[in-house]
Amino acid sequence: MISYVVTTAHSAGYTESEKAHRLAGALRVPFVPRDDRSMAEITHEHAVDGVLVVSRHRTSLFVSDQEFFFHPGMAALRIKALLAGKTDQMVKAMDLQEGDRVLDCTLGLASDATVAAHVAGNRGAVIGLEVVPAIAALVRAGMAEARPKDALLAAAIRRVKVVEVDYRDYLCSLSAKSFDVVYFDPMFRSGVVRSSNMGPMRVLADPSPVSRETLAVAGRVAAKAVVVKERRGSPEFARLGLSEQGGGRYASVAYGILRTEGGYP
What we know:
Blueprint: E1 4-8, H1 14-27, H2 39-46, E2 50-54, E3 59-63, E4 66-68, H3 73-83, H4 89-94, E5 101-104, H5 111-120, E6 125-130, H6 133-145, H7 151-159, E7 160-164, H8 167-172, E8 179-184, H9 199-204, H10 212-221, E9 222-231, H11 236-239, E10 244-246, E11 253-259
Parallel strand pairs: 1-2, 5-6, 5-8, 6-7, 8-9
Antiparallel strand pairs: 2-3, 3-4, 9-11, 10-11
């Protein structure tokens, strides 16, 4: 787990300063006045790995000259494609329908959760679990700050509930068939593509793979299916016993599917 402090942007006013103080208190990390210092200077002075910065427009975490923040851009493109009648491979793998309840056990940037919330609609529910406090805080802040012009995207973002918790503990606390779909998008054993926004994620995120024991618990919780996202051809699918896989023919990722309709031992 990386170490970090909270500060503000150079041009921040009273509102941003108050928000930064509250965020530092919630995360139990120091608040550091910016005092016109660079992030490199703050990082060196306080001997930390990163700096969480509150600005007028967004809240970001800078680690090794890379920026991590919530942005609905990819979810927006996927929702637009769905509205145009195109297939979203995650939605297809989940067999997601309006009114479904989805538990996203590895929230990350919340792109998948936002798409799921769009499809599930007002009658459905999407809960995103995130074990890393900094990621959970950034995504909560980013969702609250997001003002997309697209009303459907804005509604989908508002429907995602972020819970800071280890999914292993949360799953064990649930009764059978509490959700329709349980979803995992763990850090891949090896990367698929380079992304300026995913670089810090590899430093921040919990690298633990999904265990067969956790998959069994998820199978009890999911009324329809458990879906695991991995790179195409990953040995993780065989390790988890996921023989059914979905995903685009030429896509770099695939979805292992455990169907649970009718019960799962």
